[in-house]
Amino acid sequence: MLVISKTLRSAIPRPATLAKSKVRSALHGTRPAADPRLFDTPEAKRIKKEICAVGRKLWLRQFVDGNGGNISYRIGPNEVICTPTMVSKYDLRPRDLCMVDLDGKQIAGSKQATSEILLHLEIYKHVPEAKAAVHCHPPHATAYAITGLLPPNMVIPEFEIFVGKVAISPYETPGTIEFARTVLPFVKQHNTVLLGNHGAVCWSDTVTTAEWTCEVLETYCWILGLARQLGAPISHIPEGKGPDLMARKKRMGLPDARFDQDGSGASGNGKRKRAGGNARTPLTT
Question: What tens digit of pLDDT does each residue of 18-72 get?
């Protein structure tokens, strides 16, 4: 017979208590209290290693420099593991990582969480499917972000499926709540947003696939730049082939703003005016 000590028995969550807690949270429209113990679970240890591996990939691909960029993973309903401030992504170690709740309060980790965590949290609050987010500064994609141009669509099929329509958010000072909220008009129908005069943010169901999305975006923007240097018009995917790509994308559960339209139209370059805004004290990433 299995014997459970009194101390161990008292530490085991009671289903009725947990159920009451969830009902109370639902009734009052609040999130459950963040649990710092999630930071040391086997899942968290795996996620920390994955974040460090992705950080090194970002640095090696020159998507980040200095201490730039940030990575996060939503490990619980109110718990997010993230990279710290002022640490190169190449040098990341699992012990460097932090955990915050969805309000941005740090609940675990010895280093200070990235100041741009609010951007990630706004995505998680408004996109329940999002589990991971990567913010970086890939050069060719950022070139679009600083010119206010959108990369044209229906040129390369992989880009249409894994990224598709890209949005550009207006500039705001990094690290502020205003900056974080600039992506809100786009998060439901995109998995990638160019951040005005700043960089890009991509989100997905895993840290690795969020980084893959950054790679697809950057390579696409790079290829477009190379093609324009050849001096010949860029060839687009035939219009009649668009619906097949959109159907495949929808089956994969990936978002696209064109699902609410005809699902096939090719899109050329577009300009978007960026809102100005009062200067704020910049924060470190």
Answer: 334 443 444 345 789 999 999 999 999 999 999 999 999 999 999 999 999 999 9
The candidate with the shortest Cα–Cα distance to 86, out of 16, 5, 175, is 175
Helix/strand/coil (H/E/C) assignment for every residue in 210-239? HHHHHHHHHHHHHHHHHHHHCCCCCCCCCH
Which DSSP state fits 176? S
Helix-then-strand count for the chain, H and E: 9, 10
Contacts 24+ apart (CB under 8 A), 20-26: none
In this structure, the number of other CB atoms found within 10 A of the CB of residue 3 comes to 5
Confidence category of residue 102, pLDDT binned at 50, 70, 90: very high
For residue 202, give both structure tokens: 């991509």
State the Cα angle at 228 between 224 and 231, rounded to 5°.
155
Strands 132-136 and 106-108: unpaired
Domains of the chain listed by start with CATH number: 36-267 (3.40.225.10)
Q: What angle do helix axes 42-60 and 207-229 make, rounded to 10 degrees?
A: 10
Between CA 109 and CA 98 the distance in angstroms is 4
What pLDDT is attached to residue 278? Answer: 32
> Could you tell me the two tokens for 38?
């999630």
Taking residue 131's Cβ as centre, other Cβ atoms within 10 Å add up to: 20
Of the residues 50, 79, 116, 211, only one is catalytic, namely 116
- Is 129 known to be catalytic? no
Largest CA distance in the chain: 80
Would you say residue 211 has pLDDT above 60? yes
Q: Are 170 and 182 in contact (CB under 8 A)?
A: yes
